[in-house]
Amino acid sequence: QVHLVESGGGVVQPGRSLRLSCAASGFTFSGSAMHWVRQAPGKGLEWVAVISYDGSNENHGDSVKGRFTISRDNSKNTLFLQMNSLRAEDTAVYYCARAEGQQLGPWGQGTLVTVSS
Amino acid sequence: QSALTQPRSVSGSPGQSVTISCTGTRSDVGGYSYVSWYQQHPGKAPQLMIYDVTKRPSGVPDRFSGSKSGNTASLIISGLQAEDEADYYCCSYAGSWSWVFGGGTKLTVL
What we know:
The complex is a heterodimer. Chain A is mainly β. In chain A, strand 4 and strand 5 form a beta hairpin. Chain A contains no helices and 11 strands. In chain A, strands 2, 4, 5, 6, 9, 10 and 11 form a 7-stranded mixed β-sheet that branches. Chain B is mainly β. Chain B is globular, with a radius of gyration of 13 Å. In chain B, the strands form 2 sheets. In chain B, strands 1, 3, 4, 7, 8 and 9 form a 6-stranded mixed β-sheet that branches. In chain B, strands 2-6-5 form a 3-stranded antiparallel β-sheet, with no helix packed on it. The chains are: A mainly beta, B mainly beta. Chains A and B meet through strand 5 and strand 10 of A and strand 3, strand 7 and strand 8 of B.
């Protein structure tokens, strides 16, 4: 059974960096593309980034392009999101999700990132 | 990457049917058969309910169905039950390995 656990969230000052992790189990992680999606407090879902099964391809949403980087370590079954130059508007719960075809399959429970001085 | 357009709220009584629309463009909803729908209860992670416009993952009741016409996709929930009360989000593949979500619809079961 697919299990995804995000970690690394917390309170960070504007302009600083943070790295999120997503530990995966219950499926062949090295065979699955993965997504990050975020949800600002009281708001809707926003797609953030995707990475291919082997890490050779990735893409990021316009609002984070150039500041965030998705990556993975298949030897550790872990997905990452490096977030630099953080802004107040990046405050959100960040979810990782397994890509299944063109849809997002099981999701983790999320980790909260708060950008505030 | 503009968000897909969904009604902010819909409502229905138990046993009734409701339809949630999701309007995009030819670059996303209208250009691909890759619309998915997610249910989210308060404080919980989203759960996939419909994918590839009309397909249901195993375990999702057949009361949930999907359709698409042009640039608008729809989620239809028939035989409403109290546990269907939640937020619903559509999502479409938008080409060039990117995805876009709708703004979300709050379903209230009266």
